[in-house]
Amino acid sequence: MCAIYYKITYTKVPGLPKNFHDDYGLGYAYETDEYYVHFYGHNKNFYSIQASLALAEKKSTSQYHSLSEWVTYYFGATDINPIKNSIGRTIQGVWRPALYYTNDIHQGLKTNESERRLSQQALKILLEKLDDLFLYIEPTESSMSTYSHKTRELLILACTEVENFWMYYMQISNNPSERKNYNTKDYVKLKEKLHLGDYNFTLKSYPHIHDINPFKDWNENSPTNSLIWYDAYNKTKHNRTNNFCQATLLNALTAVIGNIVLYIVKYGPFSILEENGTFNSIINQHFSFELKNPLIETFYIPKIKDFANGGEGIFPLDAYNYKIILPYEMKQLVI
Questions:
Q1: For residue 27, what are the contacts with CB-CB under 8 A and spacing of at least 6?
Q2: N or C, which end of the chain has less CB nearby within 10 Å?
Q3: Could you state, in order of their start, the residue ranges of all structural domains in the chain?
Q4: How far is CA 226 from the centre of its chain?
Q5: From what superkingdom does this record's organism come (predicted)?
Q6: pLDDT at residue 331, rounded to an integer
Q7: Which of 293, 294, 329, 297 is nearest to 83 (CA)?
């Protein structure tokens, strides 16, 4: 069973304002044996798919004979495309929109609260060190090339933690478990599988600093050199005398952001955005972040179980609070 996604250009649903789609510009739909089902979704930030904003109609009483006809009539659907993942299916350890609630993330990605808190603690140490650096080096375009023993220390710690994330993904994937000596030729394959290039960060208090996307330019043709901050880590770790200048504030900052990206991939962004605590406050104090030009066809789509409705016409369906969303079926990560 496959879903589609589309741009919503109007709303023609009884009871909903005609401009309802202004806040929810993307639609997702599929059909069961009995129903057409539609979900609203945001088209910015983290592209949340609203399980509580579903609409459905019985196929037997609908005047529309295909899913594409149905979404075109009610939602003015344009740019209709297929979703790659089967409905209700996730990939272990890889967050995509549709997963919002903590329990769904843990179930759908095979994570747990203990692991998440441990990752938060490790990342909090890096964030506190970065916060301390900003007391001594004011982030400007010119200061980004500043280097010191403290920036080198943070770069090494941050890249070590990035490697820890990478190793986790190599171990849960289909790679031979007995192999331990992975390198960037192996790790670069994670960029596409984890959608690492989707995440864009800005420094809130320093708008003159360019956006940072740690993995954007990483490529298989040059798996080490194309990841500039990680290449700098290797050089300054093994030969500080000749490569001390590689341990810049920009490279240390980018390495810390790389950890935030990998944390989001594993646990989702909403624990950062919506929970309270030192971990959250430091990130939200310094950074704004979003998905930038993500591949929507890679998103997950919630699958609803059979439900009874005797009415005719399109009707609202709060799938989350009605508790009719089925547990996600998780696939192994394949690299």
A1: 5, 6, 7, 8, 21, 38, 39, 40, 41, 71, 75, 77
A2: N
A3: 4-97+296-331, 112-291
A4: 22
A5: Bacteria
A6: 96
A7: 297
3-state secondary structure of 63: coil
Q: What is the largest CA-CA distance in the chain?
A: 76
**DSSP assignment letter at 211:** P
Give the tokens for residue 148.
């010191």
DSSP string, 144-195: GG-B-HHHHHHHHHHHHHHHHHHHHHHHHTTS-TT-----HHHHTTHHHHHT
What is the rounded CA–CA span in Å between residue 32 and residue 303?
10
d(CA 66, CA 282): 49
Q: Which residue has the tokens 């019985």?
A: 58
Q: How far apart are CA 140 and CA 143, in angstroms?
A: 5
Q: Give the pLDDT confidence of 33-58 residue by residue, as tens digits.
A: 999 999 999 999 999 999 988 999 99
pLDDT, mean over the chain: 94
Quick one: which of 24, 22, 27 has its CA closest to 37? 27
DSSP output for 212-234? B-TTTT--TTSTTTTSHHHHHHH
Distance CA 324, CA 207 (A): 44
d(CA 62, CA 314) in angstroms, rounded, equals 8
Give the gyration radius of the chain's Cα atoms. Answer: 22
> What sign has the CA pseudo-torsion 263, 268, 274, 276?
negative
Angle at 261 between CA 178 and CA 327, to 5 degrees: 75
Token pair listed for 209: 């600093």
Reported confidence tier of residue 179, pLDDT bands at 50, 70, 90: low
CB 246 within 8 Å of CB 90: no
Q: Where are the alpha helices (DSSP H) in the chain?
A: 67-75, 102-109, 113-136, 149-172, 184-187, 190-194, 228-238, 240-243, 249-267, 270-274, 278-286
Tell me if 84 sits within 8 A of 65, measured CB to CB. Answer: no
State the CB neighbour count (10 A cutoff) for residue 259. Answer: 23
What beta strand segments (E) does 152-229 contain? Answer: 199-203
